[in-house]
Structures are given as C-alpha cells and as structure tokens.
Amino acid sequence: MEEEIESIPLPKEATSYFRVTYLSELLINLILSTGVAVALYFSAWSIWYAIPLFVITILWIMYRWGWYAEQRRKNVWYQIYEDRIVLHSGVWSKNLVTIPMFRIQHVSIRRGPLLRHYKLSNVTFYTAGSAYDISGMQVDKAQEVKDVVISLAKAREEY
C-alpha cells in the first residue's frame, strides 16, 4: 500500500491575489449597473428598478471579494506521488484531477506583474490533451514542484 502524502495548500498571500484579480470583474459589474441605472433614469422606466440591481451588485462584490476569495484558496490543494499528481479545486463544484506522471510533457511557471507583487506564481502541467493550473503558489515552492515533477516524469519515462 502506498504511503499517505500530505496535501499541500496554497499560501495565505493567494487570497489577496485572488481578491485583486476579481477587482476587474467587480468594477465591470459596478459600471454596468451604473449604466443601467442612468439609462432607466432617462427612460420612461422608473429609477426604482435600478435599486435591486445595485443591491445585487453590492452583494456580489461582497461575496467575491470577501468569502469566495478565501474559500478558493482553502479549497485548492495538490499532492505529488511517484506515479501521479492529484489536483483538487473548487468552492461550489469540487474538481479532483489525477494526472499520471508518464502523461506530463512539460511544466511551466508563469509570473505576471500581479503575481510578482505578491511573490506568487502559477504552475501549469501540460499533457497531450490539456493543461492543468495551480494558481497562487509561492515562488520557491513552484520551482520545487516543477523540478520534482520533471524528475519523476523522466524516471517514469525511463522505467
């Protein structure tokens, strides 16, 4: 039987990164809500129809900015075994993906300006069929994961 390997969660800095990435979505929602309210004000419709829209928008902002960003960080973890990688993600809809080591073609680390600011990175595992991301990993941990996965994938290939 295989030994139990610890689940590796994302760092707390990932919550701040997720919140800032949601900022553009939230600003677009707020701008659209304001545009609809202005259009209602100048049309025959009553401005009172815009109030529920603003309430829903504010609740959506509070949800995404507050609760959801933290839950996203808490619900993303991964495990690396000798023969596979297990990725878990999802707040409402849970996803559990198992990637066999012999299927991995290459691994990349991506760091945009926002990720560099929070000292985080994204690791992507590429197979012939698709790509799997882990967003919000610490830089040194991402490099360690990349090196371990590449060495295990090579070992499986030679085996």
From TrEMBL:
Keywords, comma-separated and alphabetical: Membrane, Transmembrane, Transmembrane helix
Claim: Membrane is one of the keywords in the record: yes
Taxonomic superkingdom: Bacteria
Transmembrane segments: 20-41, 47-65
Matches recorded under InterPro entries: YdbS-like_PH
All copies of domain YdbS-like PH, residue ranges: 74-147
Keyword Metal-binding: no
Name of the protein this chain belongs to: Membrane protein
Species of provenance: Pontibacillus yanchengensis Y32
